[in-house]
What does this fold into?
Amino acid sequence: MGCADASLGSGRDRGGDPGRGRSRRHLGCRRPDCLVRHFTILRNVSDPITTPHNFTPGAVAYQLGASAVVATWIQVISSVAVLVVVVLAALRASAAASFLATVVASQLLSPVLWDHYAMLLLLPVAFLLDRRQWWSAAIPLATSVFIIGIAPPVAYPIAFWVALVAVLAVGLREPPETSPTRLS
It folds into this structure.
């Protein structure tokens, strides 16, 4: 069955007892090379700045010629700015905007951002289009599968940042919903 196991999603091991038998078998790893392959993947992304085909702001800076140290600082600054935007969205923006800001932020905070993750930008684009922000239709066009290899790598972090800031800006103009968990 390879590295997948039918019991993985059931919460039960072969004995039928939930919570017991948390072994390699329970985790779905049956072949001896499964753990080796897993650790190989982890090792390959242990330095996400230099990981090929990564589209985080720091990785793109590295691909464009910045040193690993400078690229790492770009990534750290980007991550801190993302956290500031998420906190601001959570405290002051509408619920929909703060949710979508968190969705986009989760990708910008991830150590690896593959190009196909840009499909998540369809959520904030739909939000923006619903609020008559017609320009936002350009976001999925800039990251379309049809222009992979044509668009510069910097298009991806820019698209994520534009979506994040736009969702925040539109969400701040909307009145926040009244709920017991919302801070005013």
The radius of gyration is 20 Å. The helical segments are 33-44, 57-63, 68-92, 95-109, 122-130, 138-142, 155-173. Confidence is low (pLDDT under 50) at residues 1-27. Residues 68-92 form the longest helix (25 residues).
